[in-house]
From TrEMBL:
GO biological process, one term: DNA replication, removal of RNA primer
Localization: Cytoplasm
Cross-referenced PROSITE patterns: RNASE_H_2
Domain of life, source organism: Bacteria
Protein name, UniProt field: Ribonuclease HII
Comment on bound cofactor: Manganese or magnesium. Binds 1 divalent metal ion per monomer in the absence of substrate. May bind a second metal ion after substrate binding.
Length: 194
């Protein structure tokens, strides 16, 4: 049975997570989720621990059963200009901006966050395997970004983004050596693998 914490504080909580920080290309994507008192789903966990089929099912379940959710992305150009940490945090801010309900407390996966609209926040290391709302956010963000990278793969099939989703796999590195970077690659990241 799922042991994730459903309620961390007595306030209206938004769980936030991002995906794509370590990728060589594509956007960084963040999601924010507010779950309700009656939300029950024992399959939810850190998105990295779930297979594709389970994540796909949970994506629909989360969207249909939470109080509010939102997804935001920032492109490689923003990452190159502001660095990946700031881009990740600003993507989370973007997701929070799009929620239909204003949270009173923000739960963030990881150990870094910039204050958001004077709302108290708590950073939780490995929060996506501890807090239900953060885990739900991690699933929405990962599914959104994986689908986006699969679509970009159709335009640039030589990089294998339909399986590596932009991470620095051996195949991706070899493709960079042979073909060079695309407009979707992050120029501030190490892209040369001679």
């Amino acid at each position: 049975m799922n042991q994730l914490i459903k309620k961390y504080s007595p306030y209206i909580e938004a769980g936030c997570d991002e995906v794509g920080r370590g990728c060589l290309c594509g956007p960084v994507v963040a999601a924010a989720v507010i779950i309700g008192e009656n939300f029950e789903q024992n399959l939810i966990n850190d998105s990295k621990k779930l297979n594709f089929k389970t994540r796909l099912y949970l994506d629909s379940y989360i969207k249909d059963h939470v109080v509010s959710y939102a997804i935001a992305e920032l492109p490689p150009s923003y990452i190159d200009e502001h660095n990946i940490l700031n881009a990740s945090i600003h993507a989370m801010h973007g997701a929070l901006d799009k929620l239909s309900i204003r949270p009173e407390f923000i739960l963030v996966d990881g150990n870094k966050f910039h204050p958001y609209n004077f709302i108290p926040h708590q950073c939780i290391i490995k929060g996506d395997s501890k807090i239900l709302a953060i885990a739900a956010a991690s699933i929405l963000a990962k599914n959104y970004r994986d689908l986006l990278m699969t679509q970009l793969h159709e335009e640039f099939p030589q990089y294998g983004w339909n399986t590596n989703f932009g991470y620095a796999t051996k195949h991706h590195q070899q493709a960079l050596v042979k073909h060079g970077p695309t407009v979707h690659h992050r120029q501030s990241f190490r892209l040369k693998y001679e």
